[in-house]
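Posting for a labmate who doesn't have an account.
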Amino acid sequence: MKKTSHNYVILFSILLAVFLGAVARFYPVLLSHYPINDGGLFYQMSQDILDHNFALPFHTSYNSEDIPFGYPPIPFYLLALIQRFLHIALLDQLHYLPALISTLCIPAFYFLSRSITGSKERSVFAVFAYALIPGSYSWLIMGGGISRALGILLAILSLCFVWEMFKNTKVSWLLLSIFSCSLLVLSHPGITWFVFVTSLLISLQIGLNKKRILYAILTALGILVLTSPWWIITLRRFGFSLFVDAVKSSGPINPSVILFNFTGEPFITIIAVVALLGLFAEIVRRRYFLLIWLILIAFVTPRGSLRLAAIPGSMLFASGVVWVIVPGLTSFTKRVSEDSQQLGEIMREGISKVALAIILFAAFFSALAFPLLGSPETKSLSQSDVQAMQWVSQNTLLNSRFALLTGEEQWITDPITEWFPAFAKRNSVATIQGSEWLPDQTYKKRIDSYYALQDCSEQDYSCVATWAKDNNISYSYLYVTRPASGEKGINLPINYSLVTSDELQLSFENQGVRIYRVVDPP
């Protein structure tokens, strides 16, 4: 009876964590009228699939640049199928579906943590941390999170299945590993690499024998077979160089993981601090798996390291709670330092309940405050920009080329530049999204070009003209907006020189956007 009651407490705790995590994820989504931040490229790729009647397109029509349709297609087919059969618009799906999938990651994470730590009790604390730290979901709830959130969900499930497969070597776990990993390969390339590296670590942690090696080989072969329809078509169309170009777009090593700055907490980084204490506790107990996992994430998967580090980081938080915080507060180290303690025994002392309630409240408050602090990750398109883009699609020639001055400091948090090609159906000469699939280091060149153009926001129009000449870029319109954080009018310093320039003619204006036609295009 006591064990049954204990299981109910754990179930209630998991459900509470899922509820709080859902609130944290959907809150910034509900504050916006459109999908958060990015997603314009994926919106257009999904529309391309619908336009081709579900045949895999050769190129995407996004930004009129003949970008190869090389991205793993499962997220786009999912969106297209939902629109076709459930009649839910692509834009609405990109607005809400990533947050829903990210919420589903929470219970999946609990089972992964339980497999790795071997403790239901520590996994309860871990799941609260994972549910509430912005680092675990801020990039998943964006419009482009349809791929990232689905990838993380499949990664968590895949690692859970792989762990159990190596631990128990049963055919059922083998089949589940093959199926989930195959879906992951068809969903997100970067997260696939993360699962591959982690699976190698898992095999070393558990140990290899003939049967486990056989299962690993069968898993790899099964994945190759199930994903072959996609990668064979893609290789025939574009060759292996397409994937080489995409790999080259991976960013530098992110030191934030090593410095335990991956939680994204806007105030006191209380979860990160407790996780660091948990790391020390793990080392004292000569448990190095989570430490090595964090190091691998920092050095081997730099592009998505912050959201990936939230997985082992949350488990370290649980170790910090159970092995450091609670014993330190109660002064009963011997009683609570054993691995076999049940949740009720860990929480027996009143001071433990108070301390954990404070931590939970601080984490939940930080999660809710995250979008209200002007975080760049929670930006979305303004009504002014959508209105301007619609005007462009209806009143300019199809071959018109636009230079977009948004004044944003980071291209990855510039929703205007990404969504413009999808909504306006015109070319944006400095949009970066999709260029990672283009040859000749186009991706890196486009990033440099983007920042050089945005630097002109603080100067005058001659800067834009010089930028166009130096980069051998021609454009027929200049689209000028304030940064996407609000609609209080246009305030970029360059505006006075634009209004007085003889080289430009004002074609459109609303509360937040001005569009100038270039009289003599460069």
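Reply:
Got it, the structure tokens are right above this. Residues 381-518 form one domain.
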